[in-house]
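Bit of a strange request maybe. I'm writing a small parser for structure token strings and I need a real example to test against, not something I typed by hand. Could someone generate the tokens for this chain?
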Amino acid sequence: MLRAFAPVPVVELSSKERIQAIFASRDKLYVGLASGALKVYSVPPSTGSSFAPSASPPVPAKLVTTIDQFTKRAVEQLAVLEEARVLVALSDGYVHLYDLDTYALQERLHRTKGAFVMATSSDLEFDKPFVALSSDGSLPNPSAADVQGTVSRLVVSARKKLHCYEWQGAELIGSREISIPERPRSLTFIRPDKILCGLVVEYFLVDISASTVSSVFAAGRPVGPLNGAIAGVAANIGDITSSASASARRQGCALAALLPEDDSVLLVNEFSSAFLSAETGGFIKTKKPIKWKDVPAMLGYTYPYVISVAANSRRLEVRNPKTCTLLEAINFPTLAHLHDGKYPFVASSRQVWQLSIKSFEEQVRILVDQNQLDEAISLAEGLDDVFISDRTEMLRKLKMMKAEELYMRMKFQQSMMMFSEVSAPPERVLALYPAVIAGDAAGKDDVDGERAEMNSHKEAESEPDGNGTSDIAPVNGNDKSNGDAASVASTNPDAQRQKDVEFFDRFLRPSILSSAKPPGGGNGVVAKYTSSSADTMSVADSLANFLSIGKNSKVAPPSEVGSVSDFGGPESLDGKALNKAVRCLLIYLIDTRRKIARLASVESGTITKEDLALVSTEKMTAGTFGADLSKEATVVDTALLRCYMLINPQLVGPLVRLANHCDKDVVRQQLLSHGKWSELVDFYYTKKLHRDALELLKELAESRQALELSGPEPIVEYLQKLGHEHLNLVFEFAMGPIRMDEQYGIDIFMANTPEAESLSRTAVVKYLGGISRSLTIKYLEHLVFSLGDLSPDFHNELAVAYLEDIKTNAQLYSLDDDMLQRPLDKLLRLLRESRQYRPERILSVIPRDSSLLLEAKAILFSRIGEHKRALEIYVFNMKDYGKAQEYCMNVYDTDAPNNKTVFHTLLELYLRPPGIRVTLSNRMPPSRRSSNSSSMYNLSASPPPPPPPPSSSSGFQLQKSPSSSSLSSMPSYEVPAMNLDAALDLLSNHGSRVSAIDALELLPSDIKMTALGPFLEAHLRTTTASVTRDRLFASLLKTELVRTQQALVDLRSRNVVISDTRVCPVCVKRLGSSVISVFPNRTVVHYGCAKQYRETLKQ
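Reply from user aminoacidic:
Good idea to test on real output. This should exercise your parser:
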């Protein structure tokens, strides 16, 4: 049993003296005698205070002074108001106030006649419960500001009234009386202005500030809630003791003690007990009541324990207020008085014992040595950091030891939740599991080492006696102890079960697996060929389906999981138990995975505010899981993979498709052994092991070992996920699928994905050019028309590819065949719509004798501004006059050079055609030549011949071509006949765009006027419209001029009168002879005020 207190006799009186009351305050012990005398002893705080535990022997109390005539009769109760410097004594039915320094009587409170019990409190004790010790071990004195503003209270029960007195600092500021239904036998402050009164079998609460009384406990049953009677003051620890008179303690009464740790009040009435919330006033149903073996006669609280004295007045019991466990029972010869709080003392009629508390670290070690881990954890949790060095780390180790104990007791769920709560190292947790789960971490258990470490600091302790109690030898040597064995209470199962469920739900909902997504999407690389149920199920849903633990959970039979002998685990862990243990392990692994990810984000500096708050709340540091977070993450993720493979392999898919730290070799071995080919490919993609994944897919495609991954489709889908940094891999593994079907090349390089668009387009064009021209053309069309790439190289390459395709098809198909016409139409479309290609580059590629590409050459000549050469092709080679006019219309409305003279050029070609070099072509076989392509024309850059002399019939003479013999050796020039009909049609349709003078000069002199009627009529109409428009515009300008002149005259005719009395509306000063500004509204201001007035008008 724990030895928390060491009772040391500090005061022993003679046989003629009898102790009637004791009270301790700071370094003084006040003892009131039955004779009315007062003895004051000096007790150092370092030995008498529970806030200063020490292993050194306590210093005996030193008698400071004795006042024989302190009161006329016995001193029934003592109290000290430290801030008011007042010593309070209850004697002969009255309350007496004494000076705390001189012990001189200040006042006898006559209104307290018939006083039965009293209690004191101080705001300073509630607001500052923890006091740090000075360097010499003494308690520091409160500051003057604290003392001056502190309100101290004294409450006295006299008959059926409560007399309340208040001091602020050392000044008595007021008193009041509160009527109560019955005279209380005990008083306990639970707030500075609220006091709990205990009767024989019931309680009532008194609000001093509001002067209200409310019932709390009647006939052993709670009556709350208390209408808000208790509210609003923070929990605290002060020297506030439950006060009861000596006669009340002998007769028995309802007792109470404030427990500041959880802000509750312990109510005790004979063998019954209950806990009341000091904050809300309601009863705490989750805390089980204390089972008393003997009726407590006195009750108190000394941090951090509840102490009580049994009704036989011989045994002091020490209990943990959280677990209600009896930790220590100390037998005394007899006990009549108890003083709790910071300075615990007990006393008999002639002797006073000081309860010197042991070091809290030592107490924890004793509890661990006795295998009372629950009590050790409860004690460490309730203590403040000032009492135990590195309390957080000690508590963490204790909980890990408790978690291991729970695991050994087959309570896997509670064990894993406790491991997760303290962020235990993964290796320590996995060491409890067989190698099939833990891998290399199996069997590494250091719990014995921790126990040895904690016990290595333990000092030599005397063992308690056989019945579990320690006896205190009386001064006269008579031993009358009859201690009982201590009972150890268990924790509340309902509360623990509820806590477990809440903790379990908290871990399952926020899964770390949903916080990251792989590049290129989160559905996996080969999702099309994987199981749909595994891909569509989220991790949270999967856990909800497969991790249900309870009475209704379905555990796989041992045949599916494996026996213990297979795994090398503990002999007591069979297949069913191992399945449950692994499912519970997921609770720890998932939460640890989340925490490691947050810590890694902190180290990398990419953490968000939410993550930072989470890390701060859980008090994790970089060393919580070790120095190498990457290694710990690998251990956790690999163990998580093994767990999934053991209980349900379908859960592996979401794990390997998202960012993870699983060991590559373990994953490969596990997935290959279970035939999880798709999951292995996804894992390779997540880990950026693309060559391994592609080689695996290539092997599976050839072996057809996995039907869902057979064929080139999985390889193509994987390549679609790779970007520019893996271009070499794409080129290497795309060759096979493309040679099988060019559509795979379209899927890889022309997919509408960021990865496909990131590939180097120049490299892809070069790569496809060595495989297939048709695929190259499709890719270039995708770049130019779909993506709108403006690179001239791609436009040139596409035009050249079209020309090569036309050249190849021209040798195989006729002119009207679709296989030849389709690339020709594409080429013309490109040349018309694109502005990025280089015309000179394409002209150099077009064959000189090709009749198929005449229109293409005309478009190219247009691009370089050679409109005349383009029109010569339309007029003389193609003889398509409609396209010639359409060409002129398109050029005329643009900003191209010489765009306004293009119609004149066409007219000149009609009426004065230049010399044409004619070459008969016999390169094309007759079978491939169309009916209208018997000869081909090639335009030369030679200047046209001089105009021929006019003749009587046409005005022009046609030059004859040389003989056929000279045609084969040199080119001949031929002047075509004048095309008068086409010229007249041009003038009729577009005569307004041609100068009439130039047109008449070109027309032959013998042309009839009727032929020129439409042209002249249109030209006159256009000229007349232009003249009319100019006249109208001139008239409008004259009107505007007259209006402006009239406005000027009106403005000049305006005037203002400046008199001697006229003032400026801005500065309210006379205008006088100052420079002024006149506004259109005839307002006159100073010139300097004009800007301000202008701003006023704008507003």
